[in-house]
Amino acid sequence: MRKWDGNIPPIDRYNSGAEKVIYNEERLPIESYGSTPDASTTKSIQIKKRTKMENATILHKANEFVKKGNYESFLAYCTQNTKWFFVGERILEGKDKVRAYMQEFYFEPPVFTVEMTIEEGDYVTVTGEITLKAANGTYNHYDYCDIWRFENGKIAELKAFVIEKKS
């Protein structure tokens, strides 16, 4: 057993194994110290590694229902108190308000393309183009940038920047 001299040696990050890859559900031994390093005990913690693009996958799966006009199935992916901010236009609070919005503006299912998807933590940013049919039968074309926030795998918030394309 090593005597405690009060000094903590630096970690050699190149030779310490600090870059060890953590696999899903892997258990790692963690040393925790009492008042001195001699009073250490080894515990094990479980670390879950998120799969890449988890929330983005959920969003794209939910949006497939929108493309088919199945808005109720899409809404199942939203929290009850979901908030949608359409910058410079309106704010929708709650699933019922989002449902009403879809009924009012989606005369036909929107046609949209995704140019880019970026996921960081609980946020997914998507850019692309969307075409909506208006009440008078004409089609309006827009560029969009949506920032989606997730809570426990469900859509909790949307901040949408939508710009109409001029002919």
Protein model, in words:
The chain has 167 residues and is α+β, with helices and mostly antiparallel strands. The protein folds into 2 domains: 1-49, no CATH class; 54-164, Nuclear Transport Factor 2, Chain: A (Roll), CATH 3.10.450.50. It contains 3 helices and 8 strands. The strands form 2 sheets. The protein has a 6-stranded mixed beta sheet, with helices on one face. A two-stranded antiparallel ribbon has the order 1-2. The longest helix is centred in the middle third of the chain and has 14 residues, at 54-67.
**Largest pleated sheet:** 6 strands, mixed
For the record, the CATH architecture of the largest domain stands as Roll
Point out poorly predicted stretches. 11-33, 42-51
Total domain modules: 2
CATH fold-level assignment of the largest domain: Nuclear Transport Factor 2, Chain: A
Order of helices and strands: EEHHEEHEEEE
Q: Tell how many strands the DSSP assignment holds.
A: 8
